[in-house]
Amino acid sequence: MQTQQALSGLSRSVPPLLLLLLLCSTSASGFGSMGPISASFGKNGFFCAIDASGKQGVVCWGFNSSPSTSSSASSSSSASFSNIPAMAALSGGENFLCGILANTSQAYCWISVSPGIDLVPLPFKSTGYSHIAAGKSHVCAIRGSYYSDHEYGTVDCWEIFETSNRSLSSKQSTLFSDQAIANLVFKGVVSGEGFSCGAVRDGGLICWGPNSSNLGVSGPVLQNFTALASGRASVCGISDFGELNCWGDADLLDGHPNGTQYVSLAAGDHHYCGIRQDNHRVECWGMFNSSLIPKASGFMAIASSDYTTCGIREDDLVIDCWAANATSSPTDYDPPLELCSPGLCTPGSCGQGEFAFNASTLNEVDLTSLCVRKDLTICSSCGSNCSEGFFLSSSCTQHADRVCTACSLCQNSSCWDICGLQTPPEMRKKLWNHVRRLVIIFGSSALGFLLILICWCLLPRLTSQKKEGSKKQFKSCIGKAELEADNNEDPNPPPSVIPCPGIAQVFRLSELKDATNGFKEFNELGRGSFGFVYKAVLADGQQVAVKRANAATIIHTNSRDFEMELEVLSKIRHCNIVNLLGYCSEMGERLLVYEYMAHGTLYDHLHGGLSALNWSLRLKIAMQAAKGLEYLHKEFVPPIVHRNVKTLNILLDAEWSARIADFGLLTSNDRDLNGDLASDVYNFGVVLLEILSGRKAYDRDYTPPSVVEWALPLIKQNKAAAIIDRYIALPRNVEPLLKLADIAGLAIKENPTERPTMSDIASWLEHIVKDGLTL
Ligand SMILES: *[C@@H]1O[C@H](CO)[C@@H](O)[C@H](O)[C@H]1NC(C)=O
Ligand SMILES: *[C@@H]1O[C@H](CO)[C@@H](O)[C@H](O)[C@H]1NC(C)=O
Ligand SMILES: *[C@@H]1O[C@H](CO)[C@@H](O)[C@H](O)[C@H]1NC(C)=O
Ligand SMILES: *[C@@H]1O[C@H](CO)[C@@H](O)[C@H](O)[C@H]1NC(C)=O
Ligand SMILES: *[C@@H]1O[C@H](CO)[C@@H](O)[C@H](O)[C@H]1NC(C)=O
Ligand SMILES: *[C@@H]1O[C@H](CO)[C@@H](O)[C@H](O)[C@H]1NC(C)=O
Ligand SMILES: *[C@@H]1O[C@H](CO)[C@@H](O)[C@H](O)[C@H]1NC(C)=O
Ligand SMILES: *[C@@H]1O[C@H](CO)[C@@H](O)[C@H](O)[C@H]1NC(C)=O
Ligand SMILES: *[C@@H]1O[C@H](CO)[C@@H](O)[C@H](O)[C@H]1NC(C)=O
Ligand SMILES: *[C@@H]1O[C@H](CO)[C@@H](O)[C@H](O)[C@H]1NC(C)=O
Question: Where are TNFR-Cys repeat segments found (predicted)?
Answer without folding.
Answer: 349-404
